[in-house]
Amino acid sequence: MEDTFQDSASEDGGFDLRQEIARSAFADMCHDWERNQKYDRALQLTIARLHAAGQQAHVLDIGTGSGLLSMMAIRAGADSVVACEAFRPMADCAERIIAANGMQDRIRLVKKRSTKVTVGPGQDMERRANVLVTELFDTELIGEGALGTYRHALQHLLTEDVLTIPHQATVYAQVVECPLALSWQQLKTLSNADGDILLRVPPEVATCRGSSAVFDIQLSQLPAGSFNVLTDPVPVFKFAWSKHQELINDRCEQSVCHARTAGFPQAVFMWWDLTMDREGDVLLSCAPYWAHPDHEALKKKHSDNGSKRRLPEGNYIPWRDHWMQAVYFLPPLKIPLQRGQQFVLESYHDEFSLWFGVGEQSVKEPLTAPHCTCGWHIAQSRSRIGQLNDSLRNKRYLNYFERVFSSDSVVLVLSEGSLLGLAAARMGVKQVLLYEPNAISRRCMEAFVEHNSVANVRFLPSADALEPEQAATITHVFAEPHFPSAILPWDNLHYGDLLKNLRPLLPASVTVIPASGTLYALPVEFVDLYKINAPLGSCEGFDLTLMDQLIAQHSTFADSPVEAQPLWEYPSFPLAGTTRLIEINFVKDFEQSKLERGELFVSEPERLNGIAIWIDWHLDGSHSPKTTISSGPLVPVEESSDEPTRWNTNWRQGVHLLRKPPNRKGTIPWSVKFNPVLSNVYFRFDEGEQ
User: Fold this and answer.
1) ∠ CA 278-280-283 to the nearest 5 degrees?
2) Which of 20, 34, 126, 144 is catalytic?
3) Where in the sequence is the signal peptide annotated (predicted)?
4) Ramachandran region of residue 44, left (φ > 0), alpha (ψ -120 to 50) or beta?
5) What b/e string do you get for 148-159 counting C-beta neighbours within 10 Å, with b at 16 or more?
6) For residues 243-261, average pLDDT
7) Could you give the 3-state DSSP secondary structure of residue 500?
8) 144 catalytic per annotation
9) For position 26, what pLDDT does the model report?
């Protein structure tokens, strides 16, 4: 196997465009069989009902993407179809797909935004459409501007009696107590193993409502027992897509609820469903499994089909990654709800966003949309906040600190937003130097220093700010490591680059923590995640291979062969034990390029569709589990299993997805290269031909 490594750092001026095409959700949506079939069925029913009433069906498809819905409309008997698509590469691809399916003379493709489409003889549309089929939604339903697009279309492009597909959307909210979700939002007090408090959270951080950005998540994959349901799902908003006067930007709804059980109302789980046709015969639900109308029937169907493998409970319902569910955090209440207690759920939306609140009675003062006032939710990701709250992780670091630090220690912290580094200053060391180049992150850390009266701390706004005299006193260099720019866990190898540049200033006896990092790989069978990269071929009877070719072509140029995913949200079964790929040492040899080769041995290669990759940080040279911080599985994987792998919920892992089936030999040659100049790791997996 040639060690040719794909570098995503292309200098090609078209890189961003290629990446947008490669990572578009068009293929993901087309793999959503339930979405496709229910749009198809709604088109059939709607067009047939118009024809039965003696009317023609003139269809407008806004944001046609691959052209799939337009072709479905033609197959269902539409008298005319106009499809518009503003993203030019996709529009050009749709044009070729439509022609490949023999419908180029039946579908008029307009390569512009719907708000630019003109109506009249000889213009983009000969007449107003009396059927609108479109998919303008995201996880938050309205986050992609659906309200404005529908209003414009109703006013300028559609007849007054238009039938829209979907006909209506309903937003559901469920109030929950969920400490796991809250750990991604709200920083906790940091204590040592004896329960002594090291760092208290400043009040302005504790009361901050966090970011307004939607927190989309696969709710069905939350670990069992990680949340306590306080209400049944509550329908809070309805959007009738054909009613212009009802599609307003700003609304507030108040719903009287009764607590099903006692607990703190910490968050709202949100999802929506679509009534696809006016008569309500076709329903598409995005609910998590416990609230999904088809869960039990689909689970029984899986069992009746004689499948030997037990799926995770959340994977019997249709899977989709383009529409998930969302978590919204509630303003904190100091007193828990009691079972049966009445309270009011407040639901709000503007043109693009939703937010929620709770109260004991009807609220006279509306709750404004949340925004971060403390800085932490701007400077750090939700998964990073989860890491900072991870008690097992913190315990391992703090126990190690107690062993290696003394009252003479001077500690240089080469991580950003490291509360653990700050905690070291409360453990009796002489001084802590905190590397904080980001102004927002630095202000966040300064608030902790001030609130906890930590005196022996100095901030370094850049590595150059470390003076030679100060550097000569440093006894330990510590990194978690963490940098907000990191996407993949091993992107934090930037720590080694910083350390390398500072080495000439540091004493030869300095202790480096962590001492090394090891990358591991695990061949897996993903239950569903592979679909985001799998070819479509035929979709609902239409040939979409041209879109496969477009995405594959641009992926070759724009995408790294390994992408970041929170694998706890995407169940997988291990097909072998863990394989060590490469170890990168920070104490010595970091500046040298490294190349490792080997083979993955897979027990059932016909099931292989992905390779999971992560990094473990070794605090010292012992490689003991007690001094190792892992971004991978919670339990070591030693062999293939029919039990899904349990992944750390506070990290994203890397994943290499196969676009084609591997060879059947059960052996996957691999090579991994580390470039110390760029602090990058490059991977190559040779799946071979089928």
Assistant:
1) 120
2) 144
3) none
4) alpha
5) bbbbbbbeebbe
6) 96
7) helix
8) yes
9) 56
Query: Is residue 53 classed as helix, strand or coil in its secondary structure?
Result: coil
Nearest to 688 by CA among 608, 596, 575, 577: 608
Q: What is the mean pLDDT of residues 640-657?
A: 95
Within 10 angstroms of residue 80's Cβ, the number of other Cβ atoms is 19
Tokens linked to 312: 């995770």
DSSP secondary structure, 129-186, as one string: EEEEEE----TTSSTTSHHHHHHHHHHHTEEEEEEEES-EEEEEEEEEE-HHHHTTTS
Question: What number is the average pLDDT over the span 302-319?
Answer: 83
Cα 414–417–419 angle (5° rounding)? 95
CA distance 644 to 60: 44
Quick: pLDDT tens for 89-128. Answer: 889 999 999 999 999 999 999 999 999 999 999 999 999 9
What's the one-letter identity of residue 239? F
Among the residue ranges 644-653, 659-668, 673-682, the one predicted with the least confidence is 659-668
Rounded CA separation 529/28 (Å): 10
Residue 480 is among the residues annotated as catalytic for this protein = no
List 85, 135, 436, 569, catalytic entry: 135
What distance in Å separates the CA atoms of residue 140 and residue 169, rounded to the nearest whole number? 12
How far apart are the C-alpha atoms of 162 and 153, rounded to whole Å?
10
- Pick the closest to residue 75 from 95, 98, 52 (CA basis): 98
Burial class (CB in 10 A: 0-12, 13-18, 19+), 481: buried
Instruction: In whole angstroms, give the CA distance from residue 554 to residue 16.
Output: 10
Q: ω before 166 within 30° of 0 (cis)? A: yes
What does residue 77 show for φ and ψ, rounded to 5 degrees?
Answer: 105, 15
Helices (H), 428-586: 439-451, 468-471, 494-502, 545-558
Task: Work out the average pLDDT over 269-283.
Answer: 97
DSSP string of 648-686?
Answer: -TT--EEEEE-SS---SSSEEEEEEEEETTTTEEEEEE-
Look up residue 686 and give its two tokens: 């040779």
Q: Tell me the three state secondary structure of residue 564.
A: strand
Residue 657: HSE in the Cβ half-sphere, 13 Å Cα cutoff: 22
Q: Provide the pairing of β-strand 58-62 with 80-84.
A: parallel
Read off φ and ψ for residue 600, nearest 5 degrees. Answer: -95, 130
Q: What is the pTM of this model?
A: 0.93
How confident is the model over 404-454, as pLDDT tens digits?
999 999 999 999 999 999 999 999 999 999 999 999 999 999 999 999 999
Residue 426 identity (one-letter amino acid): R
Q: Could you tell me the domains of the chain?
A: 15-135 (3.40.50.150), 169-368 (2.70.160.11), 379-513 (3.40.50.150), 516-685 (2.70.160.11)
DSSP E strands, 3-140: 58-62, 80-84, 107-110, 129-134
Task: Show the tokens assigned to 175.
Answer: 């109030």
Structure token digits, residue 99: 């022609």
Mean pLDDT of the chain: 92
Structure tokens belonging to residue 54: 């003696």
Over 611-635, what HEC string results?
EEEEEEEECCCCCCHHHEEECCECC
**pLDDT for res 265:** 96
Q: How far apart are CA 346 and CA 369, in angstroms?
A: 12
